[in-house]
Design a protein that fits this description.
Blueprint lengths: L3 H5 L5 H13 L2 H8 L3 H15 L4 E4 L2 E4 L1 H26 L3 E6 L1 H18 L4 E6 L16 E6 L7 E14 L18 E2 L5 H10 L11 E2 L3 H9 L5 E4 H9 L9 E14 L5 H13 L10 E3 L1
Parallel strand pairs: 3-4, 3-5, 7-8, 10-11
Antiparallel strand pairs: 1-2, 5-10, 6-9, 6-10
Helix pairs in contact: 2-3, 2-4, 2-5, 3-4
């Protein structure tokens, strides 16, 4: 049975753990003292502190020689890997102090963000932005466990306590397809191949419910993808009619890669938000990037579109 006090005990002193790991690895307190810039007696004292803490012998001593016990060797190996991870984390933290690490969904990144960041670098050469394009079924970020300073997420604005958020632009859904599918001028969704940008098929459901066009579509059929970018590519290739974000499809529509079988765009109530933790040490840099991105946000104004709030 585990005693209650054993579950609440604090960790032993870090400097004692460091001294033991070094002595176990080098095989001598004198070598550990030289490596850690301590006296030999200080290293010996730290080791005794650990032995008292764990109530076990970590070394057998034969004159000036120190031999690690089998239990001590296992413990030392674990500490070795642990200190290595700490060193790597510190190195990454130090190297990225001048870098903004940004998390964003793939379609947003490919259809707008990369070009926007290229323009940002041209006008702000002293600030580096490192983008990670991450697939997320539901857009989210955990700044305590993920290595990002800020993120652009699709949502309704409720990102939790301690999180700053500013909307960049709204999401408007509209059906899209290759121009070749509209040659005969007729669009019957019940007869066309349907493309779903997400496994839950939520985008088609939301558009059909709000467009109020009397269109009936069997949601159990059609090709299913896990990102808007993949479904956009399938639509461009002529594999069916997909549903896309008007702001992120506008360029492909303008250059003739995509066409609009319907002219009704539906607001989902969601939008793309820049989010970052309160009291971030990079707050000034994040707000500078935010101001730029807000100024170059993609337009949802497209000629001939009927917008349904």
């Amino acid at each position: 049975m585990i005693k209650e006090h054993s579950m609440t005990r604090q960790l032993p002193p870090l400097y004692a753990l460091r001294a033991f790991e070094s002595a176990a690895r080098t095989g001598a307190a004198s070598l550990a003292a030289e490596e850690l810039h301590l006296t030999q007696s200080a290293v010996s004292k730290h080791i005794k502190t650990l032995e008292a803490y764990f109530d076990c012998q970590l070394f057998t001593r034969k004159g000036p020689r120190m031999l690690v016990t089998p239990q001590g060797q296992i413990f030392a190996e674990g500490l070795k890997h642990g200190f290595k991870q700490i060193e790597e984390a510190c190195a990454i933290f130090q190297s990225q102090r001048g870098v903004l690490r940004l998390k964003a969904p793939p379609t947003l990144t490919m259809r707008w963000l990369l070009s926007a960041l290229r323009a940002y670098r041209e006008t702000n050469p002293g600030i580096a932005v490192q983008t990670s394009s991450i697939w997320m079924d539901i857009d989210t970020v955990d700044f305590f466990s993920e290595p990002y300073d800020c993120a652009i997420l699709l949502g309704s604005g409720g990102f939790g306590a301690g999180i700053c958020s500013v909307k960049l632009f709204d999401e408007w859904l509209i059906p899209i397809c290759a121009p070749s599918l509209l040659i005969d001028g007729s669009v019957d969704l019940s007869e066309r191949e349907i493309i779903h940008p997400s496994p839950d098929r939520r985008d088609w459901r939301r558009w059909l419910a709000r467009a109020n066009l009397g269109v009936n579509v069997d949601m159990t059929r059609g090709q299913v993808f896990d990102t808007l970018e993949h479904s956009n590519a399938a639509a461009i290739a002529g594999h069916g009619i997909s549903i896309g974000d008007l702001a992120l499809c506008a360029d492909a529509i303008t250059n003739g890669q995509l066409a609009l079988p319907f002219t009704t765009a539906v607001s989902t109530g969601d939008g793309y938000y820049m989010v970052w933790p309160e009291r971030s040490r990079k707050d000034a840099e994040i707000r500078q990037l935010l101001a730029f991105l807000a100024g170059v946000a993609p337009s949802i104004e497209y000629p001939g579109i009927h917008y349904v709030e």
